[in-house]
């Protein structure tokens, strides 16, 4: 089969399966999620090995936490709460339609397409897939070609756990991805960079395909005068070093209020942290980072490790430098000294809304001020990154950092068609307004309006 035909073939096969077998009921959905959870656990060591090879060095504990534990928690939560999520939602009926009943009933959208990136190639397929299966959909996935061993392993895992009538995997490079994005899915979920997200949205637009976009941005970490600098530095570095900073919700830039860059550097060194346990994924990403940091002052916090394990570098750059505009997405941490909280808020608001704003040392009044003055997908205090692993919390961005939400009930609803179902009685006051209409109908309308 020609690569360009693979996406269309997957969509057609899943539509045939849906027409033949119908919508999976709650018991079937729970069984599928249980099978997927068991398969994921059984494949944990294989996933660690595949990502170690694809990255040229990936920390096993990071893989187990991000690629196994986080999706597993989502599967368990969905199984536990699925029947409640599926219940019809009663809606009140105005008196002039009585006797009648109305409800919103979550129905599957149909066939959902999922496009995942390379930085968390298992998690970012499985998290929206859990939402889709819980909502009763069938799924086609397009894993990243930048992690080919993991993509092949994931395809085998999904087919063994869920069956080819529920999920199909489409493998290939940019041309296949472009074709995948243009298919007439019933919903398309894309996770990746903002620039590619715009291209995906344009590809989906002619078919009016509804989309969920989980994108990126520059997540700022505001360190205010009340912060314990050592504690804040440890939390920021722990978030930045995870997966070598190749995380959409990694702290991108530190905004210091009431602290100097020199004091922050000293606090960072006092933590003993500096060398990521995971490598930069490939040479192309290293070259991108080097080009982005050209002309900046870089201070390594440790010696570089073997291969592509590059130590974290603190960076200072002129205000108009590209480092302050583009998402870093790697082991480089820009540091900006701000004259006060208003200057820090001005820095944040001069850029597109991020996935998260991280806040350290804020009083209740300062936290309220930041919340009121900024727009973001999340506002997190005293830690970084970890909120994305909370299974019951909806995840997503706003504006350039994304649209829509995934995870838990929000993800279930995003991939459901909330269909209105109405049952009318044999008579109601509204029937008096059926044609032909006369003086009595006009009087009734005026009475209803009053």
Overall pLDDT confidence: 96
Q: What is the beta-strand fraction?
A: 15-25%
Summarize the biggest pleated sheet: 7 strands, mixed
Oligomeric state of the chains in view: single chain
Provide the CATH top-level class of the largest domain.
Alpha Beta
Overall CATH architecture of the largest domain: 3-Layer(aba) Sandwich
Number of strands: 16
Count of spatially separate domains: 2
CATH fold node name of the largest domain: Aldehyde Dehydrogenase, Chain A, domain 1
DSSP summary: helix tally: 15
Helix content range:
40-55%
Describe what you observe in this structure:
- The chain is 43% helix and 17% strand.
- The chain has 450 residues and is of the alpha/beta class.
- The protein folds into two domains: 3-215 and 399-418, Aldehyde Dehydrogenase, Chain A, domain 1 (3-Layer(aba) Sandwich); 220-389, Aldehyde Dehydrogenase, Chain A, domain 2.
- The strands form three sheets. It has a seven-stranded mixed sheet. Strands 5-4-3-6-7-15 form a six-stranded mixed sheet, sandwiched between helices. It has a three-stranded antiparallel sheet with strand order 1-2-16.
- Helix 9 links the parallel strand 8 (220-223) and strand 9.
- Helix 4 packs across helix 14.
- The longest helix has 27 residues, at 60-86.
- The protein is globular, with a radius of gyration of 25 Å.
- The termini are far apart.
